[in-house]
Specification:
Five copies of one chain form a homopentamer. Helices cover about 40% and strands about 25% of the residues of chain A. Chain A is of the alpha+beta class.
C-alpha cells in the first residue's frame, strides 16, 4: 500500500481520476544497458500489477497516437493520497528522466445533476406520457424498473468499470461564459433541456462508444474531462462531430486538446513505444 | 508488418492520416561517427521503403521551409495500429533524440457531407436547369456521368493518391462558434450553400492545386486538416488568400499555423537538412 | 535572519504571500550519492524550520497532485526582503537544478473593500431589520458583537493562521473587463451586492472549506490569488462549481489554472515525491 | 549553387522572403577552441558571401536588440529550393546547436491589389481632379509619368533593393475577422479607400522609413510580414503608432510580436553578439 | 566605449530603455570553481560600473521576487548601439549559459501627447478658471510657473533620473481595440479627457510612487512599458488597482505580466540570488 503512512483522503462519493500522458526521452533511455532496460520494464510492470490489485483502483495503459506523447495512463482510485503516490511512482518507474509529462488531468467521477428524478419520471413519463395511475401494479413495476436503471447508471458514473476497447480518447472541456452565450447564467430547466438533447445524441452510439464524464471544476484548468472508448476511430470522430451541432456544444462548449491512444497489453505497448 | 501482434483498428471507411513535423537535433547528430550516420540514414531509408510497400499505405517525405521544423512526413494508412507503429518508428529511425517533434496532426480521410446527392442533381440540374425528362436516354446518360464523377471524387477523398508536386502546405482549421458567427448553429442548407461557394473558388485552381481535406473532430486540436500540393508557392498563397473572402472563411474560419514543405528524393532531402 | 543586511520592506498592513510550485528534476537528483541526498534533505528541512520560526512567518509544504508540479510551498511573511530571500533559498535548497519552477504567484493579504461597515450594519441590520433603538443596552451589545466579529474577520484576512487540513487548492483570478461584462465599470453598490451573494455561498461551506483571498493587482498576472483548504477534495470541487453560478463568477470571473496539493509531514512528503 | 540537384521552384512573380531570428547558445559555443571559433566564423562569412553573390538573392544580417534573439537574417531569393537550402545552411553554419531558432517567418514579395489603376488615375485624377482632356500632350505626359511611377513602385514591391539603413523592424500582421470588424466581408472599394488612407500616412515618412510588405497567407501564421528600415528608432515607433489610428489598423489590424535589429558589418556583428 | 566602432543611433529626442529579466542557471554556475565564481562576479561588477559611468546612461539592478526570474536590469541610454552592446554583455557577464532570458522589453522614453499646452492652460485655467487677464504681471508670472513645471515634467519623461526606492514594478500594456472599446477610434479630445482622469489618480500617489511611462509601439509586443518605483509594495498594488476603475483602464487597458523586483547593492544582490 503506497500511501499507508498517511491519512486517506477519500471523497464522500466517487473516485479521483488522473489522466497521465508522458513523453519517453529515448536519449536518456539509450544510456541504459539492456539489463537495466529489462529491470526498468519489470519495475513498471510490477507497479502496474500493484496498482491494478489495489481495492477499487483501475489503471488503463495505452500508446498515444502522434508525437504529442508516447505513453498514457488513466488511473481511477478513491484515495487522493493513493492517486498522488501512484502517479509519482509511475513517472519514475522507468528511471529518472525517462518519462516526462506531456499533459495530465485531475478530475473526479460524479453523478450528473441533470439526470431525471423519480418525481420527474413519474410526472413526465409514467403519468404524463403513458397515462399510468400511481399505485397500480404496472405503475409500481415501471417505477422499479426506472429505479434499477438509474442505480445502474449512477454506479457506472461514480464507480465505472471501463471496457478494454482499444481506442481511447480524452479531452477536457468547459461551458462558455461569454456575452449572450453564458451557460452559468441559464436557469436549471433550460440547462436540463439542453443536456437532454445531448444525451439523446450520445445514446445513438450505445455499444460503439463508452463515454465517461468526470468533473474537474476547482481541480484542473477545464471544468470536465471526457473519456471515450471505442473499437473504431471513426466512431470517436462521428460522435464528437455530431454533438458539436447540439446547441449545448455549439453555443456553450469550449474544448481543450484531444488525445487518442490505443490500449495494448504491456509487452506490445513497450515494443510500440520503442522501449 | 510492424503491428502484426495486435488486432487491427481499421475504420469502416477511409484512412488514418498523420502529419509529422520534426526538428533535427544537430548537436545530438554530430555525436555520431560517419559510419553511424550512414547506418542511421540507411535505417530511415529502409523504413520508408517498408512503409511505402505496405498495402494501401502512402508516405510523403519533405523538407520544411523555415526553422519551424526540418523534416516532414505525411502518412496515410488504414490501420490505426500501423499508423501508430510507423509514427513511433519514424521518430526513432535516426537514433534516440535526433528527431524531435515540432508539430503533428492526426486526422482521417472522409467524404464531404455537402456533396450534391443524386436527387439534388436530378432536381436542381438535370430537370431544373437543363429541362431534361427523367427516363429519356439523355437523362440516363447524364445521370450515369454524374454517378461516375461522384464515385471518382469520393474515391479521391477517402483513398487519395497524392501527386509528387514539390510544394506541400499543411494547416489545421475549425469552424467558428462565437456570437453571431456560429457555424454549428446554421441549418444544413445554409451550410451547404456556403460550402458550395468555397468549392467554386477551389475549382478555379484545378491543375495547379491538389487539395485534400481530412477530418479531425475528436482526434486533434482543430476540426479539419488541409493539405495542399502545388508546383508554385504562389498558388498556395493565392488560393488561401482568395478563399478568405468567401463568407465561409471570412465569418467562420479559424486557422492554425501553416507549414510549407518541399517533397524531395531521400538523398536530396538528407543533404538539404544537413544529415 | 536571511535578509538582515537589507532594509525591511514591510507593508502598512498585511503580509506578502508567495505560492511556489516546483518540479523535481530526478535525473539531476539521481547524480547525487545517498549521502549527498541525505544532506540535501537535511538542508531543506533545516531551512523550513528556520522559516517557520521566523516572526509572523508561515510556510505550508505539500505534494502537488498530477505531474504539473511535484513540490509546493505557500509562504506568508511581512517583509518582502525576507520573502525574496527565503524563496530563492528554497529553490536552491536541494542543490542546483534539482527544483525547477513550474508556476509561482506573488500576492498580499488584504481586507475586503466590500465588508459591511459599522454604519451599514446599524442602519441595515440593527435598526432596519431588527428594529433596535440606538443607545439601548441591547443595541450596544449587538454593536459590540459586530465589532468583535469584524475584528476577528479582518485579523484572519490580514494575518491568517491556516489549518493543517490536507487538501490545498490554489488558483489565480481576475475580474472580467469585456463589452457589457466589465466589472470595473460597475458602481460600488452593485459590486458590493454581487460580492455579498458570493459570500453567502461561501458561508455554507464553513467548517469544510477555509478560503483565503489575497490581492495581486500590480504584483502578478491575475488580480487575486485564491487558496482553499479542505479535508475532502469533493468540497473543493463543489464550492468552486457552485460559485460559478453566482453572477459575480458567471459574468465577471476569469480563472487561471488550478493546482491541487496535499499537506504532508516532511518525511512523508520527501517519500511521496521520490526524494 | 546549393540546390543545383533539385528542380527550381520559382514563382510566376516575386521572390520568397525568409526572416530568421536565432539565439546563440553560448554554452555550446564556449566548448570550441579559439581556432574552431575562427573557422566557424569564416564558414558563416563565406556562406553569406555565397548567398549575396547568388543571382537576384539578397541577405541582410543584423544584431537583434533585446534577448528575444541575437542574430537575425532577412533572405530574399526567387527559388524556394534555394531559400530552403540557404536557410538550413545558415542555421548550421556556426556548428551544430550554436544557433537556435527564436522566430522565423516565410512570406513572398507581392504587388498590392489596392494600387491605383491607369483607368482610375485617368478618371479620378487627370480628368476629375485636374480637368485634363484625354489626347492632349499634357494628358499623355501626365499618364506617362504615372506609368513610370507605378512601374517603379511595382518593381520595388516585387524585386526590392533594401537600403543599408541601420535599424530594421519586423512584425507579422493579419486583418481582423471578428463580429462587425471583419475585413474580408468588406467590398473591394471600401477596402481600397481604407488602404489609401494608410498609404497617405506612410508617404509622410518618405526618406525616413523604407517599408516592405510581403504576403504570407497560406505560408505562415499571419497574413503579411512588414519590414521597416530606418535611421532613427523613433521613426519606427512614430510610423507604427500613427498608423494605429488609421481605421484600417484601429479596427482591422492584428499584430504579432515586433523584432528590432541593427544592420552591422559582419566583424562588428560577431563582436556585438559575443562570438 | 562598447560600441565605438559603429555609427551611433541616437533618437531625435529621448532614450532607449531595456528591461532585462534573467534566470540564473545554478546547475551551470555550480560547475565553476570558487575562483571562477569570484572572477565572474567581478566581471559583472566592472561592467555595471562601466555602464553607470557612460554618458546619459543609467542602470538599475534588482532581485526579482518569485521564480519568474532572478536578476533584473533596467537600462536607459541614448544610443541603440550602446543599448544593444551592453545588453548582450550583461547576458554573458557571468559566463556562457549562466544568465538566461526570462523576459525582456524594449521601449523609448517619450513625452505624453496629452499634456496640457500653453494655449490650453491659458484658456482653460488662467482665463477660464482664475479669471486672469493676459498681459498682467500676475498672468505672466503664472504662465512662467506653468512653463517651468512643464519643462521639468518633460525633462523627467524624456531624461528621467530614477530614485533608489527599493520596490520596482514593471509591466507592459496596450490600449484595447475591440468592438465598442476601441481606443484608436476615439477622437483626440475624448482620449485627452480620459487620460486626464488617469493622471489625477496618479498624482494622489505623489511621493509614494514614481511612475515612468515609456513607448514601445513598433518596438515590442505591447504599446507601452510602465515602470513603478515605491518604498512599500502596498502602494504598487493600490495604485494599479485604483487606476483599474478609471474608464481608460477599465474599458481600454490590456496588461501583460507584472514583474516585482527589489533594488539592492551588488554584494547583497549576489547573495540574494545565490551567486
Amino acid at each position: 500500500m503506497p500511501a499507508q503512512e498517511t491519512t486517506p483522503i477519500v471523497p464522500r462519493e466517487g473516485w479521483h481520476v488522473l489522466h497521465l500522458f508522458h513523453h519517453v526521452d529515448h536519449a536518456q533511455w539509450s544510456l541504459y544497458s539492456d539489463e537495466e532496460k529489462r529491470q526498468a520494464k519489470t519495475r513498471l510492470t510490477g507497479l502496474i500489477q500493484e496498482i491494478r490489485s489495489t481495492l477499487d483502483t483501475h489503471l488503463l495503459a495505452f500508446s498515444i497516437v502522434s508525437p504529442k506523447a508516447d505513453l498514457g495512463f488513466m488511473l481511477l482510485t478513491p484515495d487522493l493520497q493513493v492517486a498522488n503516490a501512484f502517479e509519482k511512482q509511475l513517472a519514475l518507474s522507468l528511471g529518472p528522466g525517462v518519462l516526462n509529462p506531456a499533459y495530465s488531468y485531475l478530475s473526479m467521477t460524479e453523478s450528473s445533476e441533470y439526470t431525471t428524478t423519480r418525481a420527474q419520471y413519474t410526472e413526465e413519463t409514467l403519468v404524463g406520457e403513458k397515462g399510468m395511475k400511481p399505485g397500480t401494479d404496472a405503475f409500481e413495476a415501471a417505477l422499479k424498473e426506472f429505479d434499477d436503471r438509474m442505480a445502474h447508471y449512477l454506479q457506472h458514473r461514480l464507480y465505472p468499470v471501463l471496457p478494454d476497447w482499444p481506442v481511447i480518447c480524452f479531452y477536457p472541456m468547459s461551458k462558455r461564459r461569454s456575452g449572450a452565450d453564458n451557460w452559468y447564467s441559464l436557469d436549471y430547466d433550460t440547462r436540463r433541456k439542453l443536456m437532454a438533447g445531448h444525451a439523446r445524441t450520445g445514446r445513438t452510439y450505445s455499444g460503439r462508444i463508452l463515454q465517461l464524464i468526470t468533473g474537474s471544476t476547482g481541480l484542473d484548468e477545464y471544468e470536465w474531462g471526457v473519456t471515450l472508448l471505442a473499437k473504431d476511430t471513426i466512431d470517436i470522430k462521428s460522435i464528437v462531430y455530431e454533438m458539436r451541432f447540439d446547441e449545448v456544444s455549439a453555443r456553450f462548449g469550449e474544448f481543450g486538446d484531444f488525445y487518442i491512444g490505443i490500449q495494448l497489453p504491456l509487452d506490445a505497448l513497450f515494443r510500440r513505444i520503442g522501449l
